[in-house]
Amino acid sequence: MSAAPANPQYPVDSYAEARRAAFNWRGECIGYFTTVEQRVSALLVRAQDVSPYAEVKPPFPHLVGQRFERLRKLLELDGPMRSHAEQAVRALDEFAMHDELRTFLCHGELEVAITKDETVVFLFRVLNFRKQSAVETKMWANQSDVNKQRRKLSAATEALVDTLASLEKCFLNIATVSRAK
């Protein structure tokens, strides 16, 4: 994962440039989420072959939130990852603070506007279905807000990826559970 510049200043000379910058920011942030999701998934695959983790069901949840919950359950068990559980839970909690942003980035429609004072404004809209009704949720942000969000997400991603790497090392030289096929 390449590090992002500390404080990118996107040009706002035109609507097209502002829109392009907004989608670049969105793509960068989605990249942070996909990095973590991939690393968590790979760790779950590795853990599935080691006792006591092999007994926890379902082994491979479909939804990303379920994967994070499975990892949390595995961290509670007396297995190889237990020594890193406290650090891992803290890193997972910090990363989870960005769940709402993930929803807007991955599932929301993005509109960009430039105000008269040349402030770039982002509007995300997500339409969800809850209990047989449609609910639209909106998130507004300006350039300063999204830069702060990106920095926080980048830091949370780096911390969690480092923690997941520590968890992966817990499996070195550990015998795996044999399964009848």
Question: Care to describe what's here?
Answer:
- The radius of gyration is 20 Å and the shape is elongated.
- It is α+β, with helices and mostly antiparallel strands.
- Mean pLDDT is 88; it is low at 1-11.
- Helix content is 52%, strand content 15%.
- The protein has five helices and three strands.
- A three-stranded antiparallel sheet has the order 1-2-3.
- The two termini are 37 Å apart.
- Helix 2 (64-76) packs antiparallel against helix 3.
Describe, in short, the structure shown.
The protein has about 180 residues and is α+β, with helices and mostly antiparallel strands. The chain has helices spanning about 15-45, 65-75, 85-95, 100-105, 145-170, and strands spanning about 110-115, 120-130, 135-140. Helices cover about 50% and strands about 15% of the residues.
Keywords:
single chain; 181 residues; alpha+beta; 3-stranded antiparallel β-sheet; 52% helix; disordered N terminus
The low-pLDDT segments are 1-11
What value does the Rg take, in angstroms? 20 Å
Shape: elongated
- In percent terms, what proportion of residues is strand? 5-15%
Query: What's the order of the H and E elements?
Result: HHHHEEEH
Mean pLDDT: 88
Q: Report the span from N to C terminus.
A: 37 Å
Strand order of the largest sheet: 1-2-3
Total helix count?
Answer: 5
Q: How many strands, what sense, and barrel or not for the largest sheet?
A: 3 strands, antiparallel
Q: State the helical fraction.
A: 40-55%
Content-based structural category: alpha+beta
Work out the number of β strands: 3
